[in-house]
Amino acid sequence: MFTAINNGFARFVDGPNAGKLLLRLTFGILMLFHGYAKTQHGVGWIADLLQSHGLPGFIAYGAFIGEIIAPIMIIVGFMTRLAGFIFAFNLLVATLLVGMGHFYKLTEVGAWALETEALYFFGGLIIMLVGPGKYAVMKN
């Protein structure tokens, strides 16, 4: 009985390419909001943070690549696997710089304090691994 229900449902919703498109649009569009904020407020605070860790401040401009260029590439499906890697790497660097003090913390509602960072990071990795699907500028 459960198999019949599952098979019937699978026939109705089987759309791996539509799923890949939805995944790309979701993560790409949501990250663009972060990139837009960087265009409005700059990356000076990121440069200061990098320099406080002994790293060159110009690396802060990489946020524009990870939060604007890579998401646009993901949205349109252009070099999607590379863009997914850049997207995930950007989140890894941001988490290492800003979030590591929260690694073992929970919010007041019981969520992991780095939940959002983890979702974006793994979203980028998943996009890198599954590729763009057929609704993309470059299909592989």
From TrEMBL:
Q: Which UniProt keywords apply?
A: Cell membrane, Membrane, Transmembrane, Transmembrane helix
According to its UniProt record, which protein family does this protein belong to?
Answer: Belongs to the DoxX family.
Q: Please provide one cellular component term from the Gene Ontology annotations of this protein.
A: plasma membrane
Entry's transmembrane regions: 21-37, 57-78, 85-106, 118-137
Where is this chain's protein located in or outside the cell?
Answer: Cell membrane
Membrane topology is: Multi-pass membrane protein
- State the protein's name: DoxX family membrane protein
Classification lineage = Bacteria, Pseudomonadati, Pseudomonadota, Gammaproteobacteria, Enterobacterales
Q: What coarse category fits the chief subcellular location reported for this protein?
A: membrane
Q: Which organism is it from?
A: Acerihabitans arboris
